[in-house]
Amino acid sequence: MILDASLWTLLAILAMTAVTVFVRIFGFFLMGFMPVGPRLEAGFRSLPGAVAAATFAPLVVQDGLSALIAIGVAVLMARAGKSDLMALCVALGLAIAIRQAGF
Known about the structure:
The protein is an all-alpha fold. The protein has one domain (7-100).
């Protein structure tokens, strides 16, 4: 595959990368000055669930039953203390099997 991008496209990608790195580093630096109260701690605890929901909701809407069942199995396995990687592999295999079955 040949990369066919203009100079402006490459500059835009580099600029977005630089801004992203700056914001992350600056945010990490600023967090050193903030007291971590119960509200902030609760927000940090709920963040992984919010990210997972925002990631998986479109998959469930697009793929329907197979994605919903696979995500549910992955969540249950992860909550049961199994390896996250094992939960992901089992859920992926289950989603493939459900789709092959015609659902």
